[in-house]
Structures are given as C-alpha cells and as structure tokens.
C-alpha cells in the first residue's frame, strides 16, 4: 500500500459517487484525521432541482472543516468541499475552486469526470482519485486522467457497491492502483497526515 506516499506527497483527494454514495461516504469521511493537510473535493449525483444538504450532513461526521464549494474560493488545506447541486465543480490554478453550468456530462451536473479531469491538471502526481458506488459511467474517464497524470487511483470493490456500474466502467477503462472495500479505503484515508512539506498548497 502507499501510506508513506499519502503522508508525504498527496495534496488533494477527489471522490465521485452516485447511487449509494451517501452511505459509502458515511464510512469514509469519519476516518479522515484531524491533522490532515490534504483538501478533498467530492461529487455526489443528486437531484438538480433542490439544494444539496451534504455539507451540513457530513460536517457532523467529519473532523475536518466541511463546506459546499463556492465559485473562485481559494482551496484551504484540510478542508472537505462538496459540489453544490446543479453545478459542475472544477479546480483552477491557485489552486482555487470554480463552478460551471456547462452542459450535463453523462446526464449529470455536477459531473465526476469534470472534477477529476480538472483536478488532475492542477495536482498531477499529488492527487488521489476514488470512485465509489454509482449507476452510470461518470468518473471512468476522470479516473483515467488522474492515473495518466501520475496520481493514485482507487476503486471500490464492485461486489461491495450498492450500484456497481460506475466502478465497473472505471475498471474497464483503466486498471486502478487499488480495488478496495470501503473499510480498506477508509484505512487509506486515515493515513492522510501533515508529515511532509509536499502536503502544502501546490
């Protein structure tokens, strides 16, 4: 496993999920250590016609600061950002957040692919990408972009996913570094510490 690299070199984590994602994140996010200097960016497919309550829900479960992403907001290390309903979430140089109302991707806005591809351009080999349970193909191309930029890629074990289509699509497109059950992904995230100078803003 890559615990040493996670402690020293990972500045950011991107997570994508759809059907079953809230339950999966309820296992993962409480595992984040309070001293983590990595920023996390999360897309969960939700109905576009109502506000997301994810930041409010997970703020009570997580030791890190949890907030809904705002356009042009500078990235703060040790913070969890959720994409708002009906907006694509992207990373720009700085790094800073950007929100977009560009067309749907895989019938989704926010799109996992859009987040992962933009984060890969900014963070490159200092990025960890995680694809969780979901019922469409969003995220496969984005995780491939993380891989191609030198980042670490993780996919939830399909047999443990409430909806395996998303993880199977990612598996078919590009073999990930790790295929893990949720408890193993949580253990991986628990190693995100402040040990090294690489865990600063890019």
Give the fraction of residues assigned to helices: 25-40%
- Our measurement of the CA-to-CA distance between the termini, rounded to an integer number of angstroms, reads 24 Å
Structural class: alpha/beta
Q: What overall form do the CA principal axes indicate? A: globular
Share of β-strand residues: 15-25%
Number of strands: 9
CATH superfamily: Methylesterase CheB, C-terminal domain
**Secondary-structure element pattern, one letter each:** HEHEHEEEEHEHEHEH
CATH topology: Rossmann fold
Q: What CATH architecture do you see?
A: 3-Layer(aba) Sandwich
How is the main sheet built?
7 strands, parallel
CATH class: Alpha Beta
**Residue runs with pLDDT of under 50 for 5 or more positions:** 195-202
Describe this structure in words.
Helices cover 29% and strands 21% of the residues. The protein starts with a helix and ends in a 13-residue tail after the last helix. α4 (112-123) runs parallel beside α5 (140-148) and α5 (140-148) runs parallel beside α6. The radius of gyration is 15 Å and the shape is globular. It has one domain (3-189): Methylesterase CheB, C-terminal domain (Rossmann fold), CATH 3.40.50.180. The strands form 2 sheets. A 7-stranded parallel β-sheet has the order 3-4-2-1-7-8-9, sandwiched between helices. A two-stranded antiparallel ribbon has the order 5-6. It has 202 residues and is of the alpha/beta class.
């Amino acid at each position: 496993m890559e615990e040493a690299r996670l402690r020293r070199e990972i500045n950011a984590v991107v997570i994508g999920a759809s059907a079953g994602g809230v339950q999966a994140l309820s296992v993962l996010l409480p595992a984040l250590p309070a001293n983590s200097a990595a920023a996390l960016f999360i897309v969960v497919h939700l109905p576009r016609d109502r506000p997301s309550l994810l930041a409010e829900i997970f703020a009570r479960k997580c030791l890190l600061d949890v907030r809904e992403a705002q356009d042009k907001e500078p990235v703060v290390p040790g913070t969890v950002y959720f994409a708002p309903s009906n907006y694509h979430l992207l990373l720009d140089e700085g790094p800073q957040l950007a929100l977009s109302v560009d067309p749907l991707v895989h019938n989704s806005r926010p799109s996992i692919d859009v987040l992962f591809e933009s984060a890969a351009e900014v963070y490159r080999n200092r990025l960890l990408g995680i694809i969780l349970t979901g019922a469409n193909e969003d995220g496969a191309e984005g995780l491939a972009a993380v891989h191609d930029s030198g980042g670490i890629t993780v996919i939830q074990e399909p047999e443990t996913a409430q909806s395996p289509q998303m993880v199977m699509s990612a598996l078919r497109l590009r073999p990930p570094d790790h295929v893990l059950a949720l408890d193993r992904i949580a253990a991986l995230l628990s190693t995100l510490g402040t040990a090294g100078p690489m865990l600063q803003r890019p």
